[in-house]
## 1
Amino acid sequence: MPTSILGEVDDLLDAAESGACYGSALQCPSCGSSHVAQVLGDNGGISFVCTACGHSWS
C-alpha cells in the first residue's frame, strides 16, 4: 500500500502502461474504438458516445 498520494499515482500509471486497465475498456459497437465517453442520458439514464465516430448508445 502506498504511503502517499504520489505512490498511488505511480501505481496507477504503472498499471496503465502495462495494459492492466485495458481489459475493462468500453468499445464502440459501431467502429470498435475505445474512445468512449459516458454521459447522462434523458431521465437520468446512462448513455455512451464514441468520440471517434459519434455513435451513441445506452
Note: The chain has one helix and three strands.
## 2
Amino acid sequence: MASMLVSAESEAADGLLLLGYPLHPPKRADEPRTAHWPSLRCPLVFVSGARDAFGTPREFDVAFGLLPSQPTRRVIEGAGHDLKPASTRSRQALVEVARIIADVWHQALERR
C-alpha cells in the first residue's frame, strides 16, 4: 500500500523500506503486484526471506528491471515471508532485520 501511495504522489516519501513485499500471491507468480513500480522514484530498500512464497530472490531480481533505479536488497537466508527462518536461528534473523532498519534510518537522516 505504501509503495502504491508513493508511486502516485512522489513527494509522499523520501524513500521506502519494504519488509516482506508481496511480489505476487503464493503460487501465482503470473499475478505480479508491480504495475506501479515504474513510477517509484525514491530510494527503495527491500528486505525479504529467501524462502518467501510471495516472491523468490530470483523473481525479485527480474521484477527489479521495472524500477527506474536499482534498489537496495537484503535477503534473510532461511527465512520465509514473515522473515523468520525455519530453524532456531530466528532470533539472529530478527536482529539482522533490526540492523537493516537502523542502517536505512541512519542513511535517511544523513541525507536530510
Note: The domain at 2-111 is CATH 3.40.50.1820 (Rossmann fold).
## 3
Amino acid sequence: MTELSRLTLITGGARSGKSRHALELAQALAGEGRAFFLATAQAWDTEMAERIAHHRSTRPARFETIEEPLALSTAVRSLEGRAAVLVIDCVTLWVANLLGVGLADDGVKREGAQLASALRAVSFPTIVVSGETGCGIVPENPLARRFRDLLGIVNQQLAVAADSLILMVAGYPMRVK
C-alpha cells in the first residue's frame, strides 16, 4: 500500500488471511498514531463468540476497538481528527447484520454507498475487510442468494471508492487495483 492509498479493500475467501494482512498494513501505517479497529461481529451463538474471542486475542493491543454492528458510516466519521489508521472487519458480517434487522435491498445498497462516501471523506487511511462470497456454488435458499448478491454489490461499491484492492489467496495478497 502506498502513501496515496487512503482506502484499501481486502477481500478473499474464508480463512484466506484477510484480517491478518489488514492488521499488518494498519500497523505499518499507524506509526506512533492511534490505531482503531471497527468490529462488526455479534456473538449470536457459542461458535461465533469463540471466533470473536480468537480475533480479539490475535489483535495487537495498540488497536482501540469499537464494536458497531450497524452504523458504520457514523462510526467512521466519528474518528475524524483522532485516528491515524482504521481497520474495519468485516463488511460481510455488517451486510448480514443489516439483513438481520430487516433492511430491504435498496436500504443495504444505500448503506453501502454511504459507507463508501464516508470512507472517501475522512482524512485517515482505512483498511476494509470483506469476504468474497461469489466464487462458490449458488446457494440453495433465497435468503442466502440475496445475501451473496447484496454483499457482491456492496463490495463493488467499496472497490470503486478504494485506492487499493487486494485479493487474499491462501494467505498471500494479490494486488488487483
Note: The domain at 7-175 is CATH 3.40.50.300 (Rossmann fold).
